[in-house]
Amino acid sequence: MDFQYSPDQETFRKEFRDWLAANLPPGLCLDDAADDRVASDRETFERRRAWQRTMHGAGWVGITWPKEYGGRGAGLIERVIWEETYAAARAPVLPGSMGLNLVGPTLIHWGTDEQKRRHLPPILAAEEIWCQGFSEPGAGSDLASLRTRAVDHGDHYVVNGQKVWTSGAHFAHWIILLARTNPDAGRHAGISCFLVPMTTPGIAVRPLVLMTGHHHFNEVFFTDVAVPKTNLLGPLNQGWKVATTTLMHERHSAGGRGHAAQIARLVELARRVTLDGRPAWEHPWVRQRLAELAIECEALKYTRLRSLTRQLRGEPPGPEGSILKLTGSELGVRIAEVAGGLLGMHVLVNRPSDAVSDAPRWFNRVLAARQYTISAGTSEIQRNIIGERVLGLPKG
Asked: Are strands 156-163 and 149-152 parallel, antiparallel or unpaired?
């Protein structure tokens, strides 16, 4: 692997870093932006939309989108540099990230000319916020078993069903929706993809509040929702192919927000809190656990670089995607467990105290970590993929 950046790439990094330093409002900065990737309230959401519009006006949104669609037409390395630099600045996840990273690229690949003209510019400018209607109560990781139906009614389809774990649906203007259009076809056949305004009569959004108190996910119900046939994305009954495009971009959109900063803060915590009457850092077993986490984090970094090298060479996707998802999610859980061990009963206090000045951060970390072993493909699914497709093990 080549770890060197070209002079042009370093110039790109410096240009973006300097622009962020001059333009990013301090009030938008977050230590753990991934945990607050959907704004906690409408006011914060609107402030982040304004921030995305500012970035778009300066040419820093849609870095790898083709220029003909309003993007910058940059390459994969520039995207990685963008993500690393943006994360280092403690900037918030953009409210239009679903549209920028998943829906937009899917539209570019599958959309009609009219759909591209209609949706791509508003996605870049944060005028249209999107959510993803894929998972259902009985079809989460096993997406092919979805039961939401879209029935042909001449010039439109009528959709009935339910979606769940729909991030940001309460703020979204549109939803990219999977529904079964041919119930007699096989599991992966007979599914179609639709672009649906969230204001369409018959759509109801209900909140799913996390243990942290954060309203991130939602249930979305569809009752006799009329969807024009012009809103079909891709060929009829081939929505699985369209969804595969979306999921492929989801796997590659994790970007530069890794675990290194969390581990560094965990080391700081170990130096501050006491165990058995002395700083936790002085206990060999504490240092051993922290060293193990740091080693795993470093291994993840090089696995990510292997994946990046494969993409740059134009090679087909390897096992790194599932390995990164599995080990990254599980590492987050282990970081939370160590934090809980250091803080004891203090980890359950969601406000600063003399003993733990940054208690809310660790409270959120411990309660929120487990969700990442479920979202974007559960750890169990990733183990199956690695076992069957990489190691050649028989199906269980």
From this structure: antiparallel
The whole model's pTM is what?
A: 0.87
- Residue of 128, 250, 296, 320 with catalytic role: 250
What percent of the chain shows pLDDT beyond 90?
Answer: 63
Instruction: Report which residue type is found at 63.
Output: I
Question: Is there a catalytic annotation at residue 250?
Answer: yes
For residue 369, the domain's CATH number is 1.20.140.10
Domain boundary residue among 124, 155, 190?
A: 124
Residues 18 and 113 in one domain: yes
CA distances from residue 166 to 15, 133, 199, 230 in whole angstroms, order as listed: 35, 6, 16, 24
pLDDT 10s digits, 216-265: 899 999 999 999 999 999 999 999 999 988 776 665 544 445 788 889 99
Q: Is 336 helix (H, G, I), strand (E, B) or coil?
A: helix
Residue 262 and residue 386 in one domain: yes
- Tokens 């389809």 locate to 157
